[in-house]
Amino acid sequence: MTKKHLFGCNSLVLAGLMCVALKATGATYYVDPQASAGGSGSAQSPFSNIASCNSILRPGDTCLLKGGTYVNQTIVPARSGAPGAPITYAAASGETPKLTKITRQGGTAIFLNEGQDWITIKGITVDGEYALTALGVPHPGAVNGWVKVGDDETMVGSQNIVFEHNRFYRGSANRNYDCFDIAGPSSDIQVRHNVFEECGTDQNGDNKAKGNNVHFGPHTQRILFERNQVNRGGHDSMNIRGRYHVIQNNEVGNTWNAIGNDYGVRIFSFETYFNEENRFVIQNNVFWGVGRNVRLGKLLTTGSIVRGNRFGGYVSSAAEGLTANTCCGYNDNAIYSVGQRIYNNEFENVNGREIMLFKTLNTDNAKVHDNVFKNNAINNLGADQVAALYQIKPEHVLPGQDPFNRNQWINNSFADSTVYVRETENGIGRIDIHSAQNNYPETFANNLMGQFRGENQGADLTRVTRNSSGRQLHVADAAYFTDGNNVIPGDFIRIGSGAPIQVTSVNYQNNILTLSQSVSANVGQPVNLIFSGDEPSTGVYQGASPGISGQSLTVRKPMPPQNITFQ
């Protein structure tokens, strides 16, 4: 099958994110909510309603929205754009158009549910305009959903859609649960430099907070989610499914302090169904602001890379850490946590509960295996100080495997002086990390308590397994690296002390990296992402991409939405 490249490009550019073909020149139309009906759509005689743009736009055309409030007006293009000639809806220069009080299209402001492709949405504000309410008090829900792309029931999807520099506030999620929803077989989508603030809360007064700010459905592929700010999801701030997505350089929280902090279940959920290969790349994000009843997140994927992230909780003592577990009423045949590489991250102030990895609560423990937690720095687990890599019940261990089904903790640093591992599913018989390393050396190796390792004290990611001279490199474990999923450029790696070289393709089954140029490599040479100094590092000193410098263990809170500056 031929891969579809975003914007019709034939190759990725090293310094950019996704290549963009030159846009064909088309007509430009204007809309002004204060204009009189009957305008021609020119700058001097603008349309009074977005619907006029919806019906008239052709490939390459642009609809510029002037500032003001657009009541019950929706963006629903009648047709698709084309490669190099997208249909564009954008704010007029220096203007702030705001869509609100939506009743049409199921209360959704931007609706691409009929297979529209090659659409760009830029600089638009969607705002439900209601005040925060406490649990048990329904809110008016002036906007149900901000965006709907594709549909899982009809299996209609859209391709090559761009959302940039938009602001989405206060969606009720009364009808479809997700406020920014990309569903169906939608693919090759960019979501960059947007604000997503508050989705769900208590829609009907039943004391149950609902709603996800951002949701990608199980059939979606190749979505770039980059440099966005996300906060306050009634259930999750982000709920991500599908395949080959790249989630990078975002600031994501889920704290509801303004109304008593009663909302929210977790900051993020990354999930798979039926053992599909996710291969998400989740890198260089800040996940912050865990609330009183909010968990940090679930990591239920296959083959994903999680690196260079900062995870931090500030609010209360009942927060819960990162989970890679099968639990919580899901179909037991549908959840997997397999082959994930979680490395060079920092965890700070995840208070009160635990950082929970590779835990399983159902009867099929074989679905949680071959995950690696490596070179991470963890500060202040809270009073219980539990790392919580759960031992698998003997009857559920994979044949011939250790009691942890090849899940590993390697070369991590804990600021806490005593950190425990729960040996059993029900938490009985916990042991400290030192004892775990003595009893299970294949599972726990070289973890340090009571201090942080510094720069140049990380473990190598993998090593060369075959002498080679050419573009193919055989390694012990290729799962640490990505070719970018046809979304971003591939990783830059170092073989031994050699110069950086780019990965262009990864054969995960046979542990082979294809490189951008020929190299000579010998058995046993270390293979890492690029790093400064003589050795790789722990925490986020070792960047997931070129140009990421070492920083201290401090989680940054994002700026409030009204003050955000797009970079």
Structure description:
The protein has 567 residues and is mainly beta. Helices cover 2% and strands 32% of the residues. The chain has 2 helices and 45 strands. The protein has a 14-stranded parallel sheet. Strands 3-5-8-11-14-17-20-23-26-30-33-35-39 form a 13-stranded parallel sheet, with no helix packed on it. An 8-stranded parallel sheet has the order 6-9-12-15-18-21-24-27, with no helix packed on it. A hairpin with a 4-residue loop joins strand 43 (501-507) and strand 44. The longest helix is centred in the first third of the chain and has 7 residues, at 50-56. The two termini are 37 Å apart. The model is unreliable at 1-23, 314-321, 323-334, 359-363 and 542-567 (pLDDT under 50).
Please describe the structure with a list of short key phrases separated by commas or semicolons.
567 residues; mainly beta; 2% helix; 32% strand; elongated; disordered N terminus; disordered C terminus
List the topology elements.
Blueprint: E1 28-31, H1 50-56, E2 62-65, E3 68-71, E4 87-91, E5 97-100, E6 108-112, E7 119-122, E8 125-127, E9 145-149, E10 161-164, E11 167-171, E12 178-182, E13 187-192, E14 195-199, E15 212-216, E16 221-226, E17 229-233, E18 236-240, E19 246-248, E20 251-254, E21 266-271, E22 281-283, E23 286-290, E24 295-300, E25 305-307, E26 310-312, E27 320-323, E28 337-338, E29 341-343, E30 346-348, E31 368-369, E32 372-374, E33 377-379, E34 408-410, E35 413-414, E36 420-421, E37 431-432, H2 433-439, E38 444-445, E39 448-449, E40 462-463, E41 468-474, E42 492-495, E43 501-507, E44 512-521, E45 526-529
Parallel strand pairs: 1-2, 2-4, 3-5, 4-7, 5-8, 6-9, 7-10, 8-11, 9-12, 10-13, 11-14, 12-15, 13-16, 14-17, 15-18, 16-19, 17-20, 18-21, 19-22, 20-23, 21-24, 22-25, 23-26, 24-27, 25-29, 26-30, 28-31, 29-32, 30-33, 32-34, 33-35, 34-38, 35-39
Antiparallel strand pairs: 36-37, 40-45, 41-44, 42-43, 42-45, 43-44
